[in-house]
Amino acid sequence: MTGAIGEPGPVGLTAGGPGDTGPTGEKKRLTELKFVLDQPVQAHGELVKELTFKRPTGNDIQEAGYPLHIDMETGDITFDEQKMGAMMVRLGAVPPSTIKMLDAQDWATIAWGLVRFFPPRWQAIMQS
Fold it and tell me: For an engineered disulfide with 16, which of 9, 20, 40, 122 has Cβ 3.0 to 4.6 Å away?
C-alpha cells in the first residue's frame, strides 16, 4: 500500500496527539492508539468494538519486523502486510485470529494509523 498518511478514521489518542504539549511546553509522546471498529471482532473470547495498540519497542520491531519502507526519493510509504499484521498482534495484545478477522477497511485504518509510530525522527538523523 502506498500514499500519504491521512487521518486514520475514528481514533482516540490517549496520550496527546500531534502538537500536544505538557505543562512546561515539552511535546508529549504518543503512548497508544485506540481504534473504534466498523465491524466488531472476537478477541480473547469476547466480541470487541475497539482495539488499543501500545507504542512499539525495539523488541517489537525485532520480533515482528520493521513494517515500513520509506522511499527516500519520493517520500512514499509502503508497508509489508505480513509484518504489519504481526506488529498489530504484538501491539494490540490480541491473538493472530483477531487481526485476521478484521474487516479490510478496519485493518487498513489501523495499519495506516500505526504508521505514525515508525518513521524516524528526521531532525535527529540530520544533526548526527
Answer: 20
Q: Quick check: helix, strand or coil at residue 57?
A: coil
Q: Which residues of 70-105 are buried (b: 16+ CB within 10 A; e: fewer)?
A: eeeeeeebebbeebbbbbbbbbbebeeebbebbeee
pLDDT in tens, 48-89: 999 999 999 999 999 999 999 988 899 899 989 999 999 999
Measured N-to-C along each axis, helices 104-114 and 81-92 cross at an angle, to the nearest 10 degrees, of 80
Q: Checking DSSP bridges between strand 11-13 and strand 46-54, what pairing results, if any?
A: unpaired
Task: Give the pTM.
Answer: 0.77
- Cα separations in angstroms, 63 against 26, 67, 115: 31, 11, 17
Summarize pLDDT for 16-33 with one digit per residue, the tens: 444 455 556 566 789 999
